[in-house]
Amino acid sequence: MRSRPPSDPFPDAMNEMMRSATRRLDLSEAPSHRFDYLTGADEAEGETHCAYFAYGLLAAHVRHGSQICFVADGESGTGKTHGTFKGRRSVARCAIGLALAAMKTAGRPGDLRIALTEWHAEASGPLRAMPHDRLRRHSSGPEYSLDPWTPTDARTFGETWYALKAKTGFDEWEVGDSFLPRALRHRKVATTSLNDESSRSHLVLSIHLPGDGVRSRDASIMMVDLAGSELGMEEDVRHRGDLESAFIHASRHAILRQLRAFAAGQVVAQDAKVGEPHELLARC
Question: CA-CA distances (angstroms) from residue 115 to 6, 52, 133, 220, 253?
């Protein structure tokens, strides 16, 4: 059996348990879309449970080829960004590691394509349809750089594309360790009464894993880290009415509607103008 890279964050026993659990999943009758919540957890045990759950789902979907989405939603300071992007067992790190390993072992052609989109109050123009729509139709995706550290020009506001190659002789888990801090270093943050570094933007990371066209289908993985909610603040603070807070709360509901439509097999285009939602539904 192929040995695991030394930086794999999961112990042998848990890896075997996850393999056993995902083998029992019958994806033949399951919908191709999946939508699951991630919750921030301050305690190590809670974070670990969440990570194992996500890891099992990711392993199954990478293997079988389909679309899956995770969203981290909750108050500021509850660990959403840590569990989604920054932690050793973060969903993004696991997704990149599993996808690169699958490409390398199966000899899948092409690159692992990653779209990173940041939405915040200074965004000009409407929010576009969720990135998974472009990832599924690769002919309509933008050109992208083969250098993972040099992104192309953004094709929509706040959107950056990267491409990672699966190569022999490298540790796929360390790719995420190097890539993610660089990709996230410019994210908009601010100090609030709930958190020293509260995310003031919604961040979406979409991964497209190409299939070989014969034995495996394309797989798309999306993870959404919503800006920290201020619902736990005192009334006079959270109703101060500034543009940033208004955007965060109004767009949060719009994005969650998009994700629920994604899970139902629909694509939703949502206008970002606060208080002026406009939805366009179309079957996938």
Answer: 27, 24, 12, 11, 22
Task: State the amino acid at position 103 in one-letter form.
Answer: M
- φ/ψ of 65, rounded to 5, equals 80, 105
Question: How far is residue 85's CA from residue 71's CA, in Å, rounded to a whole number?
Answer: 12
> Could you tell me the sign of the dihedral formed by the alpha carbons of 159, 254, 208, 180, in that order?
positive
Which sequence spans correspond to the domains of the chain?
30-283
Residues 6+ apart with CB under 8 A from 72: 37, 38, 39, 40, 80, 81, 83, 84, 223, 224, 225, 226
Question: Which position has the token pair 């899948």?
Answer: 108
Tokens of 280: 């366009």
Residue 138: which of 168, 110, 169, 100 has the closest Cα?
110
Report pLDDT digits (tens) over 72-128: 777 777 777 888 888 877 888 888 888 887 777 766 656 777 888 777 776 534 444
Query: In angstroms, rounded to a whole number, what is the distance separating the alpha carbons of residues 123 and 29?
Result: 40
For the chain, how many helices (H) and strands (E)? Answer: 8, 10
Class of domain 30-283: alpha beta
Radius of gyration for the alpha carbons in the chain, expressed in angstroms and rounded: 19
